[in-house]
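We now fix the convention by which a protein and its fold are recorded. The integers have meaning only within a learned vocabulary of local backbone shapes. A record is reproduced here so that you can trace the correspondence yourselves:
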Amino acid sequence: MKTSRLSLALITALALSSSVYADDASEITQLKKEMQELREVTKSLIDETSDLKSGFNYTTVDTEKSYNGLGSAASKVYYSSSPLSIGGYGEMYYANENSEGKRTSKLDVYRFVPYIGYKFSDNIILNTELEFEHGGVANNDGVAEGGEVILEFMYLDFLINPHANLRIGHFLIPMGLINEKHEPTLFTTVQRPETSKYILPTTWHESGVMVYGDIIDNISYKVAGVSALQTGINGSKWIRNGRGESFEQTDPNLGGVARLDYTGINGLLVGGSAYYAPSVNGYNSATTIVDAHLDYKIGGARVYGTYAQTSRSNADEIAANAVESAQGGYINMSYDLLSLTSSADSLPIFVQFESYNPEEKRVDGTAGDKTDITTIGINYFPHEQVVLKLDYAVKSKGSVDGDTASISMGFIF
């Protein structure tokens, strides 16, 4: 009997002890959670106090984020905790070129581009890009010369839901890879691919209205009505020189552009886009541009590229030797050597193959010379927002060969 009572007492004591231990463990877990919440509140208060002292709240660039296909710095306003967001990018380069046996060199403070964004509310957002090229615009006895100052985009986004949002204003045309993502940390070469200059005329920006969003998870779309290219001209720059940009336009035509992208595989972006518009006022001619693009990153390796074709109907109405079609593309392959180490820096080496012809076919049966470019080089990222580039390009156009060695520095903020 005494043994039974003793056993019962021991069992009761153990049960009480377990209950007390369980309560203590639960309380400890809860206390840890509350302490973490207090740390986050304290950090927020410190940040806000700092902002009050300085009068400004700033947001750093998250290079892993891209809103609606924009570059990381151009996307800042969408992720900012402050109504006002300021970012930008810059790049300068030195190039030594040999063409037809003549060697020349160039030093250029190429671009400085501030982004200014403002949130009127969580659903109404202003985003702008102002570009200063070649060090700005010089003044020669009252005549502007040298560089360029231009508004590359200024639009309002009305965020409705993940499937349909509205963009109104002046914005980047959503074609290819480089036009919307043209910050220098996002491509490996010192210069942007020439396909993205003469076939998809980067940087290409027009005024209009866009609807964009996700059709389903990992499949996004953009559809826009925009001011049209004025491609009633000829020569190798017939597409590029047709851009209306943000300058005043008289009697602009209406063009349409659409884009579809798939991102369902980690590290992969693949898609296509198309543009259609009247070529120029007064002629029964239309210009069509289509492209396919790919960007795939896996480990330290990356492959990206674009192929584009352009055609112009009824080109004979414009001129007897008018260009009817153009085409071009490039593929870039790189590998980050420092991905094999524990270093936080990046050191991608790359090779890029490019071929394009902006005058592939003319009305009179002739054609312009095709250009082939092979570029090898290396980038060094001492910080994810800062890049130093070195590359060497061999270029062949018809019977003319040349080569260019270039170095550059670029940054985003």
In short: Residues 2-54 form the longest helix (53 residues). Confidence is low (pLDDT under 50) at residues 6-22, 48-52. Helices lie at 2-54, 76-79, 195-198.
